[in-house]
Design brief:
Blueprint: E1 11-16, H1 27-35, E2 38-41, H2 48-53, E3 59-62, H3 75-87, E4 91-96, H4 106-115, E5 120-123, H5 128-136, E6 149-153, H6 162-169, E7 174-178, H7 184-194, E8 201-206, E9 214-219, H8 223-227, E10 236-240, H9 247-250
Parallel strand pairs: 1-4, 1-5, 2-3, 2-4, 6-7
Antiparallel strand pairs: 7-10, 8-9, 8-10
Helix pairs in contact: 3-4
Length: 265
């Protein structure tokens, strides 16, 4: 009688690698990096983290996704990589830039993992906005400046209604826009339609928390003039609000602006 083969499933760890600085990771992630057989890594992860804490024999798969880049690996391919390696009995670490819950495709990956009943855990990370806020001296909320924050993804295909823009701009909340730097002039034009104060500060922060960090500050009214034909290095974050006025007083981290730290794929 032929003996049936049993499949020993591995496990999947979905973890946030923080905004860029290799020291801005959790102790738990540091330990899991040492456990991993396979690391499936986002484009916006600092590979120094892997060099410092992962095993030397770990398999590293760069599975970068990038807007406006047709060469990017699809989410379906990433899901398949995770499942395939886990079903081979490996401990798979899915390493994502920032935090896993902020504007990532974690839901797609979780659905794929659950479909095959693979054990998993989720480890949070420092999201880009928190890192940018700390390393620029721009607190996202501050007494007398802002009592709340709105986190928004923006690109021209977002197609927000007029009612949505009115809601976004109705308070004095700090507005944090992910994935918006390529279209920041268009974003400023839209905000000007709904915000009464044309002098509201706007900042584009490039490669926050890394030696390549650069802070670009203007206002909604002058965004088009100041940023015309300007290309911002990825990852970049857009912050809009009066809290930006605190940057000059409380800035402490000065980047060297020596080129991109991150993979382009």
């Amino acid at each position: 009688m032929e003996e049936k083969k049993t499949i020993t499933k591995g496990r999947v760890i979905i973890a946030g690698a923080g905004p860029g600085d290799a020291e801005l990771i959790t102790i738990k992630l540091q330990r899991r990096l040492g456990d991993a057989d396979v690391i499936i890594c986002d484009r916006l992860v600092n590979h120094e983290i892997i060099s410092l804490y992962a095993r030397k024999d770990v398999i590293v798969i760069n599975a970068g996704k990038q807007g406006y880049n047709n060469a990017s690996i699809s989410q379906e391919q990433i899901n398949e990589l995770i499942v395939t390696h886990a079903l081979e009995g490996h401990t798979v670490l899915r390493l994502k830039g920032g935090d896993v819950a902020f504007f990532s495709n974690v839901l797609d990956e979780l659905i794929s993992i659950k479909e095959y009943d693979i054990p998993f855990e989720i480890i949070p990370g420092i999201t880009a906005a928190a890192g940018a806020s700390a390393y620029t001296g721009i607190p996202l909320t501050a007494r007398g400046f802002s009592q709340g924050v709105q986190w928004i993804t923006f690109n021209p295909s977002a197609d927000f209604s007029a009612e949505k823009w009115k809601y976004i701009t109705a308070s004095n909340d700090t507005l944090v826009f992910y994935m918006a730097s390529k279209n920041v002039i268009y974003l400023a034009e839209l905000l000007l339609k709904y915000m009464s104060n044309k002098d509201t500060p706007l900042a584009v922060i490039e490669q926050a928390t890394t030696p390549q960090q650069k802070v670009n500050i203007t206002s909604l009214e002058h965004c088009a003039k100041d940023f015309m034909n300007k290309q911002f290095d990825s990852p970049s974050l857009v912050i809009v609000g009066n809290v930006i006025k605190l940057h000059e007083q409380f800035k402490w981290f000065i980047g060297e602006n020596i080129g991109s730290l991150f993979n382009e794929l």
